[in-house]
Amino acid sequence: MLTPYWPALGGGMLLGVSTLMLLLLNGRVAGISGIVGRLIAGHQLAANAAFVVGLLIGPLLYAAAYGRLPAIAIAASWPVIIAAGLLVGVGTRMGSGCTSGHGILGLARLSKRSIAATATFLAAGVLTATLMGALS
């Protein structure tokens, strides 16, 4: 039987290796917002589409490895989910990147901007979770 942390550990290692490979082989930072933005703008279609397709088939690979899809429970309504997605999109543009670009590769490169951005992401997440917990 798998202990609960093995899938997360494996996923984290895959993220680290794939991020490093993208940087070393293509000179690109594995930031989802930048990759999706370039895909929508029509730049580097093959590489950006391959990255996005890889994200989309991830759950299928998980199911093949563990015999089930990952358990996901979303308690928010569709309007809240859409508003949150739009706010994240605006935030990634304002912050010149997203949690994946800043938090995975930026921290590994000791980028001051990424350290500040990641600290802000975490502080906002803790504050939001605390407030939502207090309100429920």
Which keywords apply here?
77% helix; 0% strand; 136 residues; 2 domains; 6 helices; mainly alpha
- Helix share, percent: over 70%
- Main sheet characteristics: none
Shape: globular
Structural class: mainly alpha
Which regions have little confidence, pLDDT < 50, spanning 5+ residues? none
Strand elements, count = 0
Percent of residues in beta strands?
Answer: under 5%
**Can you tell me the number of structural domains?**
2
What's the tally of helices?
A: 6
Termini, distance in Å? Answer: 35 Å
In words, what does this structure look like?
The chain is mainly alpha-helical and 136 residues long. The protein has 2 domains: 1-71, no CATH class; 73-136, no CATH class. It has helices at residues 5-26, 32-41, 45-66, 78-94, 99-108, 112-135. It is globular and about 45 Å long.
Short note summarizing the structure:
The chain is mainly α and 136 residues long. The protein has helices at 5-26, 32-41, 45-66, 78-94, 99-108, 112-135.
